[in-house]
Description:
The structure holds 2 protein chains of 2 kinds. Chain A contains no helices and 11 strands. By secondary structure, chain A is an all-beta fold. Chain B is mostly beta strands. The chains are: A mainly beta, B mainly beta.
Amino acid sequence: SQQGEEDPQALSIQEGENATMNCSYKTSINNLQWYRQNSGRGLVHLILIRSNEREKHSGRLRVTLDTSKKSSSLLITASRAADTASYFCATDVFQGNTDKLIFGTGTRLQVFP
Amino acid sequence: DTEVTQTPKHLVMGMTNKKSLKCEQHMGHRAMYWYKQKAKKPPELMFVYSYEKLSINESVPSRFSPECPNSSLLNLHLHALQPEDSALYLCASSQDLAGLSYEQYFGPGTRLTVT
């Protein structure tokens, strides 16, 4: 399977703490994306980091990418109860002339007020 | 308008029924996707349409039949499904420019139960 692995599978923290999620993948990528999913809902795109970038910031989010180790991390700083959701990394790869996303196994984040 | 809409939100169907899921976007995106997601699992890609042509079929059983009538619409026709096909079906769209990759916009999904 090309599917990436994420750890931890589940993470529980208090409001105000930082949350770090890690993603490892298996194939060469064009870019790596992070998505958030509230329970039973659609996914929301958070951030995209291209294969030639090492770090990217967006608000309280910081993403790193190490293509030599085939790994990425998502840091959410000063977490809020509203950050409670599942977070997925997704590697963007080309198949023929089309690019597709391969999602990691996901991290379920619970932030307690 | 950055919204992808999906209908219906919920669908219960018997194994002998024929039904269709619908997806619509008005962002001018030329790539559209169907995903299947089981509980507590990541989304799994089923089909990709690029410029209204089927470009990826991830070996999906023929009881699932996709259709892209125009650049804004994507359908998934269902026939003779099995109980294990019960899942959340997600539609997504993205820009599709050669050599570049963009984020995908997801709809809220259709929760399908096969009885």
